[in-house]
Amino acid sequence: MPDRPATSARPPLRRVLVTGGCGFIGSNLVRYLRTQRPGCHVVNLDALTYSGNPENLADLAGDTGYTFVHGDIRDRALVERLLERCDAVIHAAAETHVDRAIMDSRPFMETNVLGTQTMLDAALHARERGAFAGVFLHVSTDEVYGSLPADRPDLRFTETSPLHPNNPYAASKASSDLLVATCRNTFGLETRVARASNNFGPYQFPEKIIPLFVTNLVQGLKVPLYGDGLHVRDWLHVDDTCEAILAILERGRAGETYNIGGHNERSNLELTRSILAILGKGGEMIRHVADRPGHDRRYATDTAKIERELGWRPTRSAWPAALERTVRWYIDNPGWWQRIRAGAYRDYYRRQYGETV
Ligand SMILES: NC(=O)c1ccc[n+]([C@@H]2O[C@H](COP(=O)([O-])OP(=O)(O)OC[C@H]3O[C@@H](n4cnc5c(N)ncnc54)[C@H](O)[C@@H]3O)[C@@H](O)[C@H]2O)c1
């Protein structure tokens, strides 16, 4: 179908189910929806795995427009019940860390593939009995396209580029994208897929590079940088992601996929040096570690489609200001990450980096 500007807006959102709302993007999204669409009730279904943290939404305690449900996306009966009267579901629950997928990919297949299939089944069943007629928005990643060469900055993946996942996490996300696409094609479910680039911002679990490096440095620990550090990612502030997801939900076209990017490509080495500079630390705080197996060199997407059709552009991702604000958030909220780093996180860190924190 040729791209064309979205014409008609849907009726205002009254009730939305968000999955994975206690995670990084999910919690920012729930808060964003409550702020930007105060008339919309948000139901958050989250299993509270290691990266799900109810503290991320502690400020919504007492908000009558918000309901938390502790449960699993693989529980079809539960999802079907929660979808009743919802205008939309934003499916963000997933296993998300590439290094963990390399250690053990099974939970990624169970949650990201089977979990998404269960969500789709629940939506179809709810639709069949007239309890759900809304949009199924699936949150995905630019990692599904695979890697680009670092020396070809002219190349970018578009929404029609072939899927070429290179690690078990990316494979599980690509699989879930395909399940969503087939559900649209076979059953006519009103789907959308949002493929976001690397996100940063507050409440990100400190296994991911920015909070990991900031919290290590604040504690006087070195930062483990993979390989030569020249892997390039397009950094997108989570508030920009939330705004784009809402635009896709409200104004995107049924069955379409939209790339979301920050126009902010940086190598991990450049990112590391920027964090060191913000914290007043030197290069001696970098500990070079063996590269991640199968480490993708560069991710970059073409975001012309969302810009053209929905008029969306990132406005909060530009560095250095956005990075400085994020680093500052972790400095100002030590209790949040210290509680995480004191728990099972320590075993993970030892297994991954061969030292204790
Ligand atoms: N963080 C990024 O840079 C990024 C970029 C692009 C796309 N994404 C996608 O965005 C989504 C959210 O990513 P994130 O970084 O916020 O992840 P996260 O790991 O911070 O949060 C994931 C959340 O999902 C929940 N969850 C996991 N398994 C569940 C299950 N079976 N049932 C219910 N809840 C479950 C967890 O408890 C957690 O709250 C994911 O789909 C991810 O693939 C993330």
Structural class: alpha/beta
Low-confidence stretches: 1-7
Q: What's the end-to-end separation, in Å?
A: 52 Å
What is the helix content?
A: 25-40%
* Main β-sheet description: 7 strands, parallel
Question: What sequence of helices (H) and strands (E) makes up the elements?
Answer: EHEEHEHHEHEEHEEEHEEHEHHHH
CATH C-level category of the domain at 15-204 and 236-263 and 297-317: Alpha Beta
Name the CATH architecture of the domain at 15-204 and 236-263 and 297-317. 3-Layer(aba) Sandwich
CATH topology of the domain at 15-204 and 236-263 and 297-317: the name is: Rossmann fold
| Shape annotation | globular
Q: Please, what is the average pLDDT? A: 95
Oligomer: single chain
CATH superfamily of the domain at 15-204 and 236-263 and 297-317: NAD(P)-binding Rossmann-like Domain
Number of helices: 12
How many E strands? 13
Query: What is the CA-atom radius of gyration, in angstroms?
Result: 20 Å
The proportion of strand residues reads 15-25%
- Heterogens: nicotinamide-adenine-dinucleotide
The strands making up the biggest β-sheet line up spatially as: 3-2-1-4-5-6-11
